[in-house]
From TrEMBL:
Catalyzed chemical reaction(s): (7,8-dihydropterin-6-yl)methyl diphosphate + 4-aminobenzoate = 7,8-dihydropteroate + diphosphate
EC number(s) from the headed UniProt entry: 2.5.1.15
Top EC class, one word: transferase
Protein name: Dihydropteroate synthase
Role played: Catalyzes the condensation of para-aminobenzoate (pABA) with 6-hydroxymethyl-7,8-dihydropterin diphosphate (DHPt-PP) to form 7,8-dihydropteroate (H2Pte), the immediate precursor of folate derivatives.
Recorded metabolic or biological pathway in which this protein acts: Cofactor biosynthesis; tetrahydrofolate biosynthesis; 7,8-dihydrofolate from 2-amino-4-hydroxy-6-hydroxymethyl-7,8-dihydropteridine diphosphate and 4-aminobenzoate: step 1/2
UniProt keywords, alphabetically: Folate biosynthesis, Magnesium, Metal-binding, Transferase
Annotated InterPro entries: DHP_synth-like, DHP_synth_dom, Dihydropteroate_synth-like_sf, Pterin-binding_dom
Family assignment from sequence similarity: Belongs to the DHPS family.
Biological-process GO terms, alphabetical: folic acid biosynthetic process; tetrahydrofolate biosynthetic process
NCBIfam families: DHPS
The UniProt record lists the keyword RNA-binding: no
Species: Pseudochelatococcus contaminans
């Protein structure tokens, strides 16, 4: 029997339609993430950071227990769950009281099941449902929306990265549908910083409209990524300005969700962007005579 997700009363798609672009606050509970490793491992620290991000405007919290930085050491499902489950226990009631859903950043079906049981309600898979054959069915069982990210085992500078993303997403969508996941519960992520050259990361952002034309919401996570560092010659912790530029560029091309470290800065930038968009609509509706 399909379990009802906490999002059932207000689907992720409905949230995007009502107030998108949404902000997904990153909550890494890993010792080796590229810019904030070890800062939020303790449940008390994770809860405090979650509360801060929600106060600053996070619409979703994304909890991950395995670093995905280049050269990271894979962890077992058991170790991953040891990291994320105490954090979920610490933040689930708080997030629920603020009507903020939690996503679990994992490509392992057993971790997804444990996290969904513990209160998460979205599955965010960096391998687009294509690494673990059971993860899509786990999401379907819980009625959980899925975020399918484009990824590659190896970088290939010669390929058309946007065409590669479209083919990859066609496979992810087929897997999701086969498992019983509704189209309204599928989000696509171009995977900025994963299996791409710096130039391909920029091409992926340029090609967002082609991904958006597939008919699904799009999430972009360029926060503090190395291609931004290469452009502005700054370490990961000093890439906010470049991140804001990349993310507003993505929003202008149809991004529905931004996955971010710096929630307040993004919330303020989006507020200004929305005001400018509204002003343009008002000018169009009431042109000067």
């Amino acid at each position: 029997m399909t379990r009802e997700s906490p999002l059932a009363a207000c689907s992720l798609a409905a949230r995007i339609a009502a107030r998108g672009p949404l902000l997904m606050g990153i909550l890494n509970v890993t010792p080796d993430s590229f810019s904030d490793g070890g800062r939020f491992d303790a449940p008390s620290a994770a809860r405090a950071h979650a509360e801060t991000m929600m106060a600053e405007g996070a619409d979703i919290l994304d909890v991950g227990g395995e670093s995905t930085r280049p050269g990271h050491a894979p962890v077992s499902a058991e170790d991953e769950q040891t990291r994320v489950l105490p954090v979920l226990a610490a933040i689930t009631a708080l997030a629920s009281s603020r009507d903020v859903p939690i996503s679990i950043d994992t490509y392992k079906a057993t971790t997804a099941r444990a996290a969904l049981t513990a209160g998460a309600s979205i599955v965010n898979d960096i391998w687009g449902l294509q690494r673990d054959p059971d993860i899509a069915s786990v999401a379907a069982t819980f009625g959980a929306p899925v975020i399918a990210m484009h990824n590659r085992q190896a970088v290939d500078p010669a390929i058309d990265i946007v065409d590669d993303m479209r083919r990859f997403f066609e496979r992810s969508i087929a897997i999701a549908r086969q498992a019983g996941i509704d189209d309204a519960d599928i989000v696509l992520d171009p995977g900025i910083g994963f299996g791409k050259t710096p130039e391909q990361n920029m091409q992926a952002l340029h090609g967002l409209s082609k991904i958006r034309s597939m008919g699904y919401p799009v999430l972009v996570g360029a926060s503090r990524k190395s291609f931004i560092g290469a452009l502005i010659d700054r370490p990961a912790t000093e890439r906010l300005n470049g991140t804001l530029a990349a993310h507003l560029f993505a929003v202008a091309r149809g991004a529905d969700i931004l996955r971010v470290h710096d929630v307040r800065a993004h919330a303020e930038a989006i507020r200004v962007w929305r005001a400018l968009e509204t002003a343009e609509d008002k000018i169009a509706a009431h042109p000067r005579s």
